[in-house]
Amino acid sequence: MGKSSKHGARARAHARRLALQGLYQWQLSGASAGDIITQLYASQSLKTTDTDYFEELLYQAIADSNELDTAFSPYLDRPLTQLDPIERAILLLSTYELKARPDVSYRVVLNEAVELAKSFGAEQSHKYINAVLDKTAAELRKAERGAG
Predict the structure, then answer these.
(1) pLDDT per residue over 98-129, tens digit each?
(2) DSSP 82
(3) Residue 46's closest CA among 9, 86, 89, 17?
(4) What's the burial of 45, exposed, middle or buried (CB within 10 Å: 0-12/13-18/19+)?
(5) Residue 18 φ/ψ region, left for φ over 0, alpha for ψ in the -120 to 50 degree band, beta for the rest
(6) Which residue of 8, 17, 33, 55 has the smallest Cβ count within 10 Å?
């Protein structure tokens, strides 16, 4: 499985999973993206991860976190400060993709977010994540949603 395996759907799913870990860590520790990346690289097997995509997701979601929070906050049923750190991490990650990666279908973004929430979130958080991101996608991806 040469280099191409590092850029397929599975490699991107692994990148999202790793970025989720990094965003969770960032919220709890306040560490820099660079420090988190160094630590994750030391502790994880990256053979099947699109590392470029992982780094983009983590750096940009942290750098743009205020803007991303503002994009999805209107669709929350509670104050942002009361969001579970896993839920916020998934919303930051996915909202970044909706906003900055039009090459990734909004359906893929939502599906990947739901899968992350099922794996790492509270029991029903995948439904909440899906509802918030569906409304966020309706705003950020109007043209794509209209065509779909």
Answers:
(1) 999 999 999 999 999 999 999 999 999 999 99
(2) G
(3) 17
(4) exposed
(5) alpha
(6) 8
